């Protein structure tokens, strides 16, 4: 029963990606549209991060997780190595949870 939806999603993903390769040279966008697409990608990524950092299921995730994400964001913005970003975010979240700020 679940195999059919998986196959449909796989076919749709393949068609979407393959369509981009086929249409790359046929479609041209104005500079304004390119700027809007770039901005929309950033907004979508920010919304995904905010949702993941602030919500756990239907409830608020607590203060430790958003603080860890904030630390990771600042370190990534400062171009810290990826391992440092991940370890610092995990340590921040773990220490705040240990302190009782779940």
UniProtKB/TrEMBL annotation:
Coiled coil, from the record: none
Any Pfam family the entry gives: AzlD
Organism (species): Actinokineospora fastidiosa
Keyword Transmembrane: yes
Signal peptide: none
Parts of the chain that traverse the membrane: 6-24, 36-54, 60-77, 82-100
Protein name: AzlD domain-containing protein
Entry keyword Chaperone: no
Keyword set, alphabetical order: Membrane, Transmembrane, Transmembrane helix
């Amino acid at each position: 029963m679940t195999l059919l939806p998986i196959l449909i999603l796989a076919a749709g993903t393949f068609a979407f990606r393959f369509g981009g390769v086929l249409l790359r040279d046929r479609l041209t966008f104005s500079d304004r549209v390119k700027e809007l697409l770039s901005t929309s990608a950033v907004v979508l990524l920010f919304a995904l991060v905010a949702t993941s950092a602030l919500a756990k299921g239907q409830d608020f995730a607590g203060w430790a997780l958003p603080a860890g994400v904030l630390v990771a964001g600042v370190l990534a913005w400062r171009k810290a190595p990826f391992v440092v970003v991940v370890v610092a975010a995990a340590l921040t979240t773990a220490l705040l949870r240990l302190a009782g700020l779940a």
